[in-house]
Fold this sequence. Notes:
- Chains A, B: It comes from Linum tenue.
- Chains A, B: Pfam families: Usp.
- Chains A, B: InterPro entries: Rossmann-like_a/b/a_fold (IPR014729), Universal_stress_UspA (IPR006015), UspA (IPR006016).
- Chains A, B: This is UspA domain-containing protein.
- Two copies of one chain form a homodimer.
- By secondary structure, the first copy, chain A, is of the alpha/beta class.
- In chain A, about 45% of the residues lie in helices and about 20% in strands.
- Chain A has six helices and six strands; from the N terminus they run E-E-H-E-H-H-E-H-E-H-H-E.
- Chain A has helices at about 25-40, 60-65, 75-105, 125-135, 150-155, 155-165, and strands spanning about 1-5, 15-20, 50-55, 110-120, 140, 170.
- A five-stranded parallel β-sheet of chain A has the order 4-3-2-5-6, sandwiched between helices.
- In chain A, helix 4 (about 125-135) runs parallel beside helix 6 (about 155-165).
- The longest helix of chain A has about 30 residues, at about 75-105.
- Chains A and B meet through strand 1, helix 1, helix 3, strand 4 and helix 6 of A and strand 1, helix 1, helix 3, strand 4 and helix 6 of B.
Amino acid sequence: MSTLETTPSPPEQKKVFLAAVDESEESMHALSWFANKILPASSSGHHRSTLVLLYIKPPRSLYLYPDDAGHMFSADVMTAMDKYRNDVAECVMLKAKRVCNEAAGNNDHHHVKVETMIENGDARDVICQVVDKLCVDVLVMGSHGYGPIKRAFLGSVSNHCAQNVKCPILIIKRPTSN
Amino acid sequence: MSTLETTPSPPEQKKVFLAAVDESEESMHALSWFANKILPASSSGHHRSTLVLLYIKPPRSLYLYPDDAGHMFSADVMTAMDKYRNDVAECVMLKAKRVCNEAAGNNDHHHVKVETMIENGDARDVICQVVDKLCVDVLVMGSHGYGPIKRAFLGSVSNHCAQNVKCPILIIKRPTSN
């Protein structure tokens, strides 16, 4: 056993954290764990780090399953569907920002800039694209980037990202016990 | 955009970090990145966190491929093989502790206890078992827990762990560019 002397990162190390969020409980747990356990210390110092909250609106088709028998949908249905997708995105972002604010309430002093980003498409592809575009230092996500229904059809987003993003990825599962 | 006030974790939050290391460059890069970028701040405060360096000696059979044509090996060969496995384990641990000491040289003040652990078996199973046994807070590993040869036969350890460990897992890839 040896001893390692350590201290917070140097002030000049400004970091960009990307947290992929969605309507799942895993997603909010992951954000909360990161915002309370890792972010405060990792962003300590006199620099400003940024936490980007990313929500990806899934394709319309996901909301049609399993009722989509191939028939056409009226403009009204499509409009209602788009409104629903926007409402879900807004709700998720409100929850995510509340999680960040609760973490802020448990902490103090250092500033982390929190930004929100809403995109469209396949979460697996969009997350990887945003990681490159923003030169993200650490990608944070729950063990599933999709809610339980969509996950069944689209598989694990976290597995895909772990294999494809270039930056370090922190995958946080929601405890099954307690 | 909102602002999040943060500060290092409370002193009572003593953490156990588990870094799975092996002879691969990905593994040492992951340990170095974590020890320099995350560990210092995450372990800041007046508490003592522990970083456990875990190396898993792979089964003898892995060292026999592709020369194992099914014939018996003499006791001398087996003894030499075991000595080689022990030498590799010792070499990996020396490199890993050097990485930690270099990170310590870049930092200051706070103490992180560094411990080493050498186990035998399939890294995928052993890592998951050790995570449970030590009540690990964060598992840290490279994008591959095996070297290039063994990986080809045993697949990605990080994928397996990401799907099976209960604790948060930080997967760090070695940059392909620069």
